[in-house]
Amino acid sequence: MNSSEIKKIKNEYDSKFHSAYQLLNEQQKLAVDTIEGPVLVVAGPGTGKTQIIAARIANILSIGVDAKPHNILCLTYTDAGAIAMRKRLLEFIGPIAHKVNIYTFHAFCNDVIQHHPQFFLKRESEPVSDLELAAIYHELIDELPEGHSLRRLKGEIYFEAKRLKSLFSLMKKEDWSAEKIIEAVDKHIAELPLMDEFICKRASGIYKKGDVRTDKIQEEVEKFNLLKDAAVLFEKFDAKMKARARYDYDDMILWVIKAFKENELLLLEYQERFQYVLVDEFQDTSGSQKEILELLISYWGQDANVFIVGDDDQSIYEFQGARLDNIVNFYEQFEESIKPIVLTNNYRSTQKILDASKATIDKNKQRLIHLIKKEGLVLDKNLVASNPKIISQEAPTPKVVEYYNSFHEEADIVLQLEKLHQAGHNLSEVAVLYSQHKQAANIIKLLEKKGIPYNVKKREDLLKIPLVNYFINVLEYLQEESSKAFSGEEILFHLMHYPGLQINPIDIALLSYHVSQKPRTEKKQWRLSLDNALELSTLNLSSQNKIIQLG
């Protein structure tokens, strides 16, 4: 390809970019044109944040500043976000978009580790699998002394494993030490008697109006002491991971933070390389991710070319460690030089939907409009429907329906889906939204019973899949029986209920009653009855052959 052909292609992409630029509204253009210094863009839903980030990168490369594509770093929260950003950028600048550094935080840290293994000493480590991780948590619980708050001697003895996993992941994401958690817990406990929820509002039992509810405080203290006991186990967990030469994705961020802090030349290399840093979905970044960003831009102080896009009203990962504080702290850190921009033109929804959403979100007092205060600065986050195609359509008014309880709600949702299905509507155009997968469990069961097709997207825990869980129970039963005969009777009872065996539940109940009524002179073990075809024949069981096969 000769120079004239290259110039022609470049002119074509420049034309595409300028055409797209002309379609931007005033605030979007301001975000794209503000190239130098720190910028905070508060972008509500449907306001075109992906478009302005891609357009801003294209603008940096087109206006002749002393920066090449590899001098730009764009950090996103998800892989999907990184792919969408790269795709949009390709439309503006063509193949050169592949030279722009677009990463998730984890992918960026992995890239640092891969290119500088001498700083990490993790070359022989491998990512930990879910099964290995489960084994580590079980081992951690098994080693707890008798009487420890996290150790259960009967029932589901590894009940706390899931909560330990969640806690340790949060500690890594936020870069919290056990000492920091203990300090925060002790401070919280000391303040409990002063909190309104622990003051008696009316006379109740031994408490008079205005008394401190010491019983509720004791419950709270026990709960938080459990948290302290769990936090101190993190060091042992970390040691077990290292002994196995294993790591998870959260570890990579902590390794890079540590390497940047301990090796000035390594940090300087990346600070010099990335002259422009852009971050998408900033409201969902964790404490450790925010620390990576701060290290990368720390050299430039108030003059850092850092472009942050986020929206406090869309902080859907708050439970995972994401915090509104990240946006507020960023603003305060660069208050002297920062350029705040708010995008309020929504191109996705009708005004009725936006107004209904506003009526709900306005009740939240923990918002930027209340927390960022500066003379002469007014943050207006009232979204305005701005898509001509949507505005011209007749839009239904959102309806709020209240239910007596969650069971009524689930039943009504399924009935509505059933009506749509029977009327021949395409259910792929229907969505049921919820915050946690467990909330949809009953709805999914009802849809399956009614034969209504559905599609649900979620990560499956291998150990929770019914078939896998059944085989685990079989192995547990065999282990119990091999160590002591007839010690796995309780597990055997559960195994009989597995749907794949097709044993009638009424037969199991009849058999249970039969075994319990045996004379004292006879052994009352389930396994003996399952092996006795003659004995089973006297009970007139509908699934007798299935039971004999199990025995």
List the SSEs and their pairings.
Layout: H1 3-22, H2 26-33, E1 39-43, H3 49-62, E2 72-76, H4 79-93, E3 101-104, H5 105-115, E4 126-127, H6 130-142, H7 161-174, H8 178-191, H9 214-231, H10 234-243, E5 246-247, H11 249-262, H12 264-273, E6 276-279, H13 287-297, E7 306-310, H14 325-333, E8 339-343, E9 345-346, H15 351-361, H16 368-371, E10 384-385, H17 388-391, H18 406-422, H19 441-449, H20 466-483, H21 489-495, H22 505-516, H23 526-530, H24 533-537, H25 544-550
Parallel strand pairs: 1-7, 1-8, 2-3, 2-6, 4-5, 6-7, 9-10
Helix pairs in contact: 1-3, 2-3, 3-4, 5-11, 6-7, 8-9, 11-12, 11-13, 18-19, 20-21
Please tell me what the overall shape is: globular
Strand arrangement across the biggest beta sheet:
3-2-6-7-1-8
**Proportion of beta-strand residues:** 5-15%
Tally the helices.
Answer: 25
In terms of structural class, how would the helical and strand content be classed? alpha/beta
Note the gap between the termini: 76 Å
Radius of gyration: 30 Å
* Overall residue-averaged pLDDT value: 85
Low-confidence stretches: none
Q: What is the helical fraction, as a range of percent?
A: 40-55%
Number of distinct beta strands: 10
Q: How would a crystallographer describe the biggest sheet? A: 6 strands, parallel
